[in-house]
Amino acid sequence: MSWLAAAADTVSTESTQQAIGYPTLFVLVLLGALVPVVPTGALVSTAAVVAFHQTAPFALAMVFVTASLAAFLGDVTLYWLGRRGMGSKNGSRWLEAIRSRAPEERLAQAQQKLADHGVAVLVLSRLMPAGRLPVMLACLVAKWPMRRFARGNLPACLAWAVTYQLIGILGGSLFPEPWEGVVAAVALTLLISAAPSVWRRVRTSG
Asked: Among 22, 69, 95, 140, which is least packed by CB within 10 angstroms?
């Protein structure tokens, strides 16, 4: 029957996409956590759009698990490298990379929020564009042990993965074609990422 053949082709195609897509998503999100130039939020939203249009069960759950685990491992690894740099007389390139993305003003704000609210700030920092590294540096300066950072960072990564996955699901539900949902999700994530920078420029010019 033709419909059986079509269904088999669909399942085969989706299985191939998953076999390639999940490891790729994991690696890219992990690298994006270590080298913050990859738009990891857009990657998660895109993967969620594709999963939303698939018939395979648990596709969205797999995107969530893959993204949150990769983000957590990337953050913990970067924090560990930063701790090594803090303990070294010569520092490290990883610590300098964190410092370069955490200006003094942002670091001071992060330190104050960390002192006032503790672990909860980690969750918010993961959701705020360009907020993760200043808070991570504040934790390093405060000499948080790895266990404390990891305990606070886990819910942060889970909340981050859920947020960007919901953006992808929204894009996927609004458009019948996956590519249209991908475009919408990527545009929305880029808009969210650019909003704080635009707002700061508006305040400065005003």
From this structure: 69
Dig out the tokens for 101 from the structure. 């993305």
How far is Cα 131 from Cα 195, in angstroms, rounded to an integer? Answer: 13
Name the token pair of 206.
């005003």
Separation CA 101–CA 29 (nearest Å):
18
Sign of the alpha-carbon dihedral angle for 157, 158, 159, 164: positive
The residue type at 184: A
Percent of the chain with pLDDT over 70: 72
Closest CA to 129 of 99, 106, 112: 106
Which pair of tokens denotes residue 154? 């886990």
CA distance 53 to 50: 5
Half-sphere exposure of 44 (CA within 13 A, CB side): 31
Amino acid of residue 172: G
What is the model's pTM?
0.79
